[in-house]
Amino acid sequence: MLNNCPSSGKDVNGNFCDRIEVSAGFFRSPEFQDRGYFIYRFYSLVGKIPLYDEFMPDLAKVSGFLSTQQLEANKAAFVNEFMTRQDYQTRYGSISDSSAYVTALLQTVGLPNHPGKAGWIAGLTNGSLTRAQVLRSLVESGEVYQKYYNEAFVIMMQYFGYLRRSADISYLQWIGTINGTGDYRVMINGFLNSAEYRQRFVP
Question: How many Cα atoms are found within 13 Å in the side-chain-facing hemisphere of 7?
Fold first, then answer.
């Protein structure tokens, strides 16, 4: 794509084809959304922004050349393992009531009126759903997907992808920029041309 991109940065149809657009394309790709963003959303369930050194090993669990069946098995294993972690156990381990459990999950992600709430409570109560299934169903819901999309774009693509480190407090300003303007190109350009990126990674 870059080799055929004119110096203007746009193709014959007027669409951007420069390195900023290529970079954004990686994040928007179905594979990255189905793997990297899948992992990222679980951290929202324990009310935290993942650190680089904890996220990358988690990402590795669903990365590589995997068949559909292998990817599904790895995702299921990750969910079960995630539920044993201290962050999860501290928030939810002592909650025995199904309604209280679902309510606590939804409060943590800031979606107390999620349309799936009643169904999840009923499923846990009658035994047709496990807590792992409810957890994953919430993470994969459209509401959670949309709520954390811009945050993940800033954290995963910019800090983890470009700077190879955890985010600092300035990530809030970048999220504000994306939420306010929708102009992801300004943000990507800022990271690609930052002194830190150029000093560390540009020959």
Answer: 0
